[in-house]
Amino acid sequence: MGLNFILDELKSLREQALMRDYRTIESAQGPYIQIEGKSYLSFCSNNYLGLADHPKIKQAAITAINQYGWGTCASRLVAGNMLLHEELEKKIAEFKGTEAALLFPTGYMTNVGAICALAGREDIVIGDKLNHASIIDGCRQSGAIFRVYPHNDVSQLESLLLRSSTYRRRLVVTDSVFSMDGDTAPLPEIVEIAQKYDAIIMVDDAHATGVFGQHGKGMIEHYGLEGKIDIIMGSLSKAIGSIGGFIAGSKHLVNFLKNKARPFIYTTSLPPAACAASLAGLTLIQEDTSLIDKLWENIRYLKSQLSEFISNISGESPIVPVIIGTAEDALNLSTRLYENGILIPAIRPPTVPLGTSRLRISLMATHNKEDINRLISTLKDIGFLTHGNVKHLKEGYAQTDVG
Ligand SMILES: *Cc1c(COP(=O)(O)O)cnc(C)c1O
Predict the structure, then answer these.
(1) How many other CB atoms are there within 10 angstroms of residue 134's CB atom?
(2) Which of these, 29, 104, 127, 247, has the minimum number of CB atoms within 10 Å of its CB?
(3) Which strands sit side by side in the sheet containing 32-35, from one edge to the other?
(4) Is the CB of 362 under 6 A from ligand 1?
(5) Whose CA is nearest to atom 6 of ligand 1?
(6) Which is the closest atom of ligand 1 to the Cα of 177?
(7) Which residues belong to the active site?
(8) Ligand 1 pocket check: which of 92, 104, 108 to mutate, most ligand atoms within 8 Å of Cβ?
(9) What pLDDT is stored for residue 397 in this prediction?
(10) Cα 378 from chain centroid?
(11) What pTM does this model have?
(12) Would you say 299 and 320 are in contact if contact means Cβ atoms under 8 Å apart?
């Protein structure tokens, strides 16, 4: 007995083409990365604005290390609260247009921490079927009743709210940009319904921060919903190119979470240099939106190129999924691309529903037209895209039952 079950489970994963492993990146994160000494064109990073390797951000981190050292060696509430944590929180609140903000070490911990603090056994959390795993884990851990509505189905959200008036608190939570489908939530409608039923509304703006809105402030700016979202969650580890998660909202909310969110309380605070990098990233976006413009130019170009071959390309964001079907087929296609020097890992269950394994193409502002042309011509060379044979790919969420 002992750990023998592990071998069986690994064997089963391998047989279903669901085994996962990582590659070793030997360079900085950019459009080109080095693996085993070879250069690969990468279309799989959340480094949407190319900031992870930006000279200003690297310099900000180096300066902070020289001034404050690296580690904090304490939680925020004990002795790990440093100047740069507070500066960054102030900056995030200003960026998101809220009274206050609270940092967490990661976006994952932010969702788990906030949801568990806000909802408990007497409460209900209602969320989109395709919400990020960290939201789902937060709901599960919270002990609250957890109900999902079909993807972006606002009328089903309303009927769940109609049937939930007996709970102490009702929390409605949705991604603003869905991480595996790249599509967006109908936030104005969701907010209206949540308000109608006096529910709390929480929006995960991880993929929209630094990408959507005229100044890159996210989906709330994009829709003009300032002041209407109770809880804005975001990540600093995508377009901002750094690390960390945050909640932006009222001063009272932040005070409450400081006292109640266990992933905030019981962990060491972020290194000050990480905060300095995030501060530099946010400043860069505020001063110059040209990287955001370039990103959207790339998104439009890729989608126009793909739509010559595929009739139903979804994705209204830097995430453009090409849904293949079986895990094996997606893996084979990914392998063929890799052999041709292009890195786009196959996304398979349980990350996406069974039968919707996909290539998930992510774009960066630092890609250029030639990079995108190379992707298209490689997809043609390996026989995936063929002219005169416009594909209608599988739909993502439509294939699955709603639990
Ligand atoms: C990436 C992501 C998170 C987690 O953020 P990290 O900072 O990577 O932990 C949360 N929600 C969504 C929608 C995400 O895509």
Answers:
(1) 23
(2) 29
(3) 32-35, 38-42, 342-343
(4) no
(5) 107
(6) 13
(7) 179, 207, 238
(8) 108
(9) 53
(10) 27
(11) 0.95
(12) yes
Would you state the pLDDT for residue 396? 61
The answer to whether the CB of 132 is under 6 A from ligand 1 is yes
Give the model's pLDDT for residue 388: 63
Give the Å distances, CA to CA, from 307 to 207, 371, 372, 385, 389: 23, 17, 13, 10, 12
The predicted structure's pLDDT at residue 399: 40
Phi/psi of residue 358, nearest 5 degrees: -150, 165
Residue of minimum CA distance from atom 3 in ligand 1: 107
Residue 393: band (very low, low, confident or very high) from pLDDT cuts 50, 70, 90:
confident
In this prediction, residue 391 carries a pLDDT of 75
| pLDDT higher than 80, residue 197 | yes
C-alpha–C-alpha distance, residues 279 and 349, integer Å: 36
Q: Which residues pair with 357 in a beta bridge?
A: 325
* Domains with residue ranges and CATH for the chain: 21-52+290-390 (3.90.1150.10), 72-270 (3.40.640.10)
Q: Whose alpha carbon is nearest atom 8 of ligand 1?
A: 107
State the burial class of residue 1 (Cβ atoms within 10 Å of its Cβ: 0-12, 13-18, 19+).
exposed
Pocket test for ligand 1, best of 128, 134, 267 (most atoms within 8 A of CB): 134
Indicate which atom in ligand 1 lies nearest the CA of residue 108.
9
CA distance 221 to 225: 6
CB of 360 closer than 6 angstroms to any ligand 1 atom: no
| Maximum Cα–Cα distance across the chain | 65
- Give the distance (Å) from ligand 1 centre to CA of residue 386: 35
Q: Residue written as tokens 């990661």? A: 106
Query: Is a pLDDT exceeding 50 seen at residue 278?
Result: yes
Mutation probe of ligand 1 site: the residue of 46, 181, 235 with most atoms within 8 A of C-beta: 235
The token pair that represents 43 in the structure block: 């279309």
Lookup result for tokens 């809880």: 231
- Tens-place pLDDT, residues 127-182: 999 999 999 999 999 999 999 999 999 999 999 999 999 999 999 999 999 999 99
